[in-house]
Design a protein that fits this description.
Blueprint: H1 5-20, H2 24-32, H3 38-45, E1 52-54, E2 77-84, E3 87-94, H4 105-121, E4 125-129, H5 140-156, E5 162-166, E6 169-171, H6 176-180, E7 183-187, E8 192-194, H7 198-205, H8 211-214, H9 217-223, E9 229-231, H10 234-247, H11 270-274, H12 286-293, E10 300-302, E11 310-317, E12 320-327, H13 338-353, E13 358-364, H14 371-376, H15 378-391, E14 396-405, H16 406-410, E15 421-424, E16 429-431, H17 435-442, H18 444-449, H19 453-468, H20 472-476, E17 482-483, H21 489-500
Parallel strand pairs: 3-4, 4-5, 5-7, 6-8, 7-9, 12-13, 13-14, 14-15, 14-16, 15-17
Antiparallel strand pairs: 1-2, 2-3, 10-11, 11-12
The structure holds hexanoyl-coenzyme A.
The site of hexanoyl-coenzyme A (HXC) has 15 residues, from helix 5 and strand 6.
């Protein structure tokens, strides 16, 4: 007794047909362009031999526009689960060789099933997008299919991490599945993502533009802020996926993969002291501070090309995973503006959803003054940061390095906004505004009435600075946990992190807050 040879051969033939997708010639053409196939992407992503494909024998059921009698192997998408660095993950990859990877009813069902499973089992989802969008022949079935995927992206949001790689075209409403996920990586040179392409824009509005300007990785990364990373090629995109995974828990009821060192290194770092400029007007090099704070300088910066006045990303501090949010005084003096507020607020929400402790590094002179900022809604956008910090229940440790002025300081999480610990360097300046501005407002009359207004102003500025441009006034009032030397920062934050890791904070039950979006 044994299974019939014919049945074995039938299965092998079907498997081979699914694997070849749109045909060897199409794969060869892609290979010549340096593009990976859907299966190559998944093979590179998962540990060898661990990928279990689901729905390999799926096919379309469309009877319109010459589709009847045609086979669409796998219905244009490869889906399944496997191991990545020992952790189970779900992934799908559009197969562009099959009808341009376009999404039909069964294609959408496969992705929806995968998302349902990821949600049920608490595993992260990775999507490799390379598709012409809605399968035109399937009409409303394709639209309904997108609806079912979007719906599940939203149900999975905040439950399991979702990462999208855009490795080819991603046009129209199709861009909204990646947009509903947590992180988007676009591949340089081979991908684009847009709602309306240049032709449509010109036809409707008369405006001329190029794809580079609206849909390229650079436009999405640096102008619109739609995406988080640009990868050099497919292999690099997969590397970024794995790096992200190394900092993330598989779901919202797990802790991130902390690897706390058994003995906390309490030594000081004199190089950190050396980073503080003598002159308070010379900007602090925040990226250097971050790289000395995290283990081995290993910092995964998110949205590095967007709103560079704010730096956000993941690292570990003596093994504990943290999300770092830092003003960058090297760009726009580190002011908070619309884009940097959006960038930080979204990152804070992600960290809170997935139990990642937050370390905030403050050197902020205020909100960015400007007509565009006011008319663009800096009030609404800045409020997102206040909302995100106050709503976050993960450990929150704030370190004031230099300026901590006005509402912008609150938007960077002071004690009253919910920080568990607030440390300040001796160079910390905690005030409603800078000494010069404050003096001009407070002592306008005295300065004008003085026989030497300049000297009077300088004297009053010095007086204000002495009072408020130190951390001690706030420390006196219990607003500061401790004043620490820059060189002590890493060891102090390490200890603080350990003591806050057991934090459990509950909030009043509600459906959800009404965050100012
Ligand atoms: C069916 C499609 C398709 C689609 C491509 N193909 N897109 N089939 N539905 N949406 C097929 C082509 O007919 C072709 O089939 C094969 O895929 C490869 O396409 P090419 O055009 O030869 O490739 P290329 O020159 O690389 O151009 C790729 C492309 C282009 C830029 C993606 O195909 C294109 O513009 N497609 C249409 C994109 C689009 O408008 N989609 C709808 C978006 S709106 P053969 O048999 O020749 O190999 C949308 C709404 C979603 O998605 C709404 C959600 C709410």
């Amino acid at each position: 007794m044994a299974i019939q040879k014919a049945l074995i051969e039938q299965l092998e033939t079907k498997r081979a047909a699914a694997r070849i997708g749109g045909g060897a010639d199409k794969h060869e053409a892609r290979r010549k362009k340096g593009l990976m196939s859907a299966r190559e992407r998944l093979a590179a992503f998962f540990q060898e031999g661990t990928f279990q494909e689901w729905g390999m024998h799926a096919d379309h059921d469309c009877h319109n526009f010459g589709m009847e009698g045609k086979s669409v192997p796998c219905d244009g998408v490869v889906t399944g689960v496997g191991l990545v660095d020992g952790r189970t993950c779900a992934a799908y990859a559009h197969d562009f060789t099959i009808n341009g990877g376009s999404l039909g009813r069964i294609h959408a069902l496969k992705i929806s099933n995968l998302l349902d499973y990821a949600l049920k089992t608490g595993i992260p989802v990775f999507g490799f997008n390379d598709s012409g969008g809605a399968r035109i022949q399937e009409g409303d079935d394709a639209l309904a299919g997108y609806g079912s995927v979007f719906f599940r992206n939203v149900q999975a949001s905040g439950v399991v991490p979702q990462v999208a790689v855009i490795a080819g075209p991603c046009a129209g409403g199709a861009a909204y599945s990646p947009a509903l996920m947590d992180f988007i990586i676009m591949v340089k040179g081979t991908s684009n993502m847009f709602i309306c392409g240049p032709e449509v824009i010109q036809a409707v509005t008369g405006q001329k533009c190029t794809m580079d300007e609206i849909g390229s990785p650079m436009a999405n990364a640096s102008v619109s802020g739609n995406i988080h990373f640009i990868a050099d090629n497919d292999a690099h995109a997969i590397e970024i996926c794995k790096k992200l995974l190394s900092f993330l828990p598989s779901n919202n009821v797990m802790d991130p993969p902390h690897h706390p060192v058994p003995h906390i290194d309490l030594s000081t770092d004199p190089e950190m002291d050396a980073l503080v400029p003598d002159d308070s007007k010379t900007p602090l090099d925040m990226p250097k501070v971050i790289s000395r704070l995290v283990d081995n300088g290993d910092f995964l910066e998110i949205q590095a090309l967007f709103a560079k006045n704010m730096v956000v990303g993941f690292g570990r501090i003596q093994g504990v995973v943290v999300g770092i949010i830092a003003n960058n005084p090297l760009v726009k003096a580190g002011c908070l503006d619309i884009d940097s507020s959006d960038k930080a607020a979204r990152f804070i929400r992600f960290c809170n959803a997935f139990n990642v402790p937050i370390v905030t590094l403050v050197d902020v002179p205020g909100f960015m003054p400007g007509v565009q900022q006011e008319r663009g809604g800096i009030i609404r956008h800045g409020a997102k940061m206040l909302f995100a910090y106050a709503a976050a229940t993960v450990p929150k440790i704030t370190v004031i390095l230099r300026k901590a002025y006005g509402g912008a300081f609150l938007a960077m999480c002071n004690r009253e906004m919910g920080a568990d610990m607030v440390y300040a360097w001796p160079t910390g300046e905690i005030a409603v505004m800078g000494a010069e501005g404050a003096t001009k407002i407070l002592f306008k009359r005295e300065i004008l009435a003085d026989k030497d207004p300049k000297a009077k102003e300088a004297e009053l500025v010095a007086e204000y600075r002495e009072k408020f441009c130190t951390p001690y006034e706030a420390a006196k009032k219990g607003m500061i946990t401790d004043v620490i030397l820059p060189s002590e920062t890493r060891s102090v934050v390490s200890l603080a992190l350990r003591s806050t890791l057991t934090k459990r904070e509950t909030r009043p039950a509600k459906k959800h807050g009404t965050m100012p979006l």
